[in-house]
Amino acid sequence: MPDNNKTSIVVFSGDMDKVFAGFLIATGAAASGMEVSMFFTFWGLKAIQKGSLTGKGLLGRMIGLMNRGGIERVGPSRFNFGGIGRWLFKKMMRDKNVVGLSELLETAIDLDVKLYACKMSMDVMEIAEEDLIDEVSGFMGVAGYIKEASESDVTLFI
Amino acid sequence: MPDNNKTSIVVFSGDMDKVFAGFLIATGAAASGMEVSMFFTFWGLKAIQKGSLTGKGLLGRMIGLMNRGGIERVGPSRFNFGGIGRWLFKKMMRDKNVVGLSELLETAIDLDVKLYACKMSMDVMEIAEEDLIDEVSGFMGVAGYIKEASESDVTLFI
Amino acid sequence: MPDNNKTSIVVFSGDMDKVFAGFLIATGAAASGMEVSMFFTFWGLKAIQKGSLTGKGLLGRMIGLMNRGGIERVGPSRFNFGGIGRWLFKKMMRDKNVVGLSELLETAIDLDVKLYACKMSMDVMEIAEEDLIDEVSGFMGVAGYIKEASESDVTLFI
User: Fold this and answer.
1) What CATH code is assigned to A6-128+152-157?
2) Domain residue spans in chain B?
3) Can you give the pTM of this predicted structure?
4) Which chain A residue is nearest to residue C33, measuring alpha carbons?
5) Given CB atoms, is C5 within the 8 Å cutoff of chain A?
6) Cβ atoms < 10 Å from Cβ of B37
7) Angle between the C16-31 and C101-110 helix axes, to the nearest 10 degrees?
8) What 3-state DSSP class applies to C1?
9) Which chain A positions have a beta carbon within 8 Å of C29's beta carbon?
10) Strand-pair partners of A155
11) B29, B7 in Cβ contact below 8 A?
């Protein structure tokens, strides 16, 4: 078992299956006793949004509408079929008693996985701090990520 | 040259070009004397499937049909054109004397690269142990992956 | 702050947002005093191409045409809408005073980030050395990458 290790994961993708893989690795690492930080950036921010519509300017509102956030709204990278894929995957996971994304997020929080939001992506996409779930551990720029990553044994970009 | 290093690669993608990159890095690392583990999960499982149709329930059979496995069946992430892309890339690689995916897989096995299949993805997608090639080194959950990754110097998610 | 650390990033993707993330992490790490190497392979080569048409054979010219290089030609992975997305994202980033891709590339060069091109991908895609920008630090095979990666604390595949 890892002794004093640290894992840092950049969650760039907003695809359900990739976000799922990210949380699975994060909770698995935390359960093994590692310190874990997740950095949500670009499309990945979806996973830690409350799900309200975001954006103030025209472009920001467009992005907010087309890419509405919330952990239950992310769709798979393949076979989405305009939203059916999300339902299909959820059903398959439920049928196999695999934990869902919302539960994985809760587990991550319970296991003290740090959830950081990328400040710059929030600015570009016009996502405000209050659009994110309350459990977010902090807002960070690239320097903060680099510090964490350079101290980590496992570094992943998802 | 790396002395006692270890590389662990999560192969999440089922795209030909990404799977190719994964095997290229894996065999390169093994050839440099590193211990290498590859973890095939979600779409990546395709690369170590025999190619038979999989799935028992309706949804599992649907996935098995639409996403039929086998290393020769994976298509590129861009310019697939309904299957022509796969042929085109194979032809370009052959023309340049670049080794193909099947040969890379064999090389990986010869170089003792460990090939692990993600048990949970197999369950969700209804892929049975006998659907995978015989050279699979084992079936693993996230805890097994974390153990390997935390001991690795190079950790990648592809 | 990291003391003697090294970061190595494989840039496999040719998507604007992912390339952007890659350069952001690279420049951030370099600014923190880390040594940084970026390995441009497959579609990622686009980011260090001059932008001239490439390819000699029929297939190579086809790829060169459909996937024309140059840092200003890469489009986002989502919402591209046949090129509008590239403009839209550029506009949003400009509006928020976020640095653009070309400037990030220049900053990376100024901060002495090493830019390596994957020789094999260049061969397969018929991209010649003179098709790449002059600031490329060298041409490398997988063995060269493995050497760098095995000495790095932060290893990412983008």
Assistant:
1) 3.40.1260.10
2) 6-128+152-157
3) 0.88
4) A146
5) yes
6) 24
7) 30
8) coil
9) 146, 149-150
10) A8
11) yes
How long is chain A? Answer: 158
Q: Which of A4, A18, A86, A96 to mutate to test the interface with B (most CBs of B within 10 A)?
A: A96
A39 sits in which H/E element: strand A35-40
Write phi, then psi, for C126 (nearest 5 degrees): 55, 50
Residue C58: strand, helix, or coil? helix
CA distances (Å), origin B6, targets A124, A151, B29, B105, B119 = 38, 18, 8, 19, 22
For residues C28 and A147, what is the distance between their CA atoms, to the nearest angstrom?
10
The ipTM value here is 0.85
Separation CA C107–CA C100 (nearest Å): 10
Q: Which pLDDT tens digits describe chain B residue by residue (158 residues)?
A: 444 589 999 999 988 889 999 999 999 999 999 999 999 999 999 899 998 788 877 777 777 777 788 887 777 776 665 566 667 677 777 777 777 888 899 999 999 999 999 998 998 888 999 999 999 999 999 999 999 999 999 999 99
| Contact across the interface for B157 and A154, Cβ inside 8 Å | no
- Per-residue burial over B51-85, b = 16 or more CB atoms within 10 Å of its CB, e = otherwise: eeebbeeebbeebbeebebbbebbbbbbbeeeeeb
CA distance B26 to B46: 17
Interchain pair B59, A21: CB under 8 A = no
Q: Which residues does chain B have within 8 Å of residue C155's beta carbon, measured at their own beta carbons? A: 153-156
CA distance A155 to B150: 10
Is residue C56 helix, strand or coil? coil
Residues 93-122 of chain B whose Cβ lies under 8 A from any Cβ of chain A: 120
The residue assigned the tokens 């079936």 is: B139
Q: Scanning the structure block, which residue is given the tokens 């990328």?
A: A118
Least Cα separation, residue C96 to chain B (angstroms): 31
CA-based diameter of chain C, in Å? 51
User: Contacts of residue B57 in chain A, CB cutoff 8 Å?
Assistant: 95
C23 close to B (CB below 8 A): no
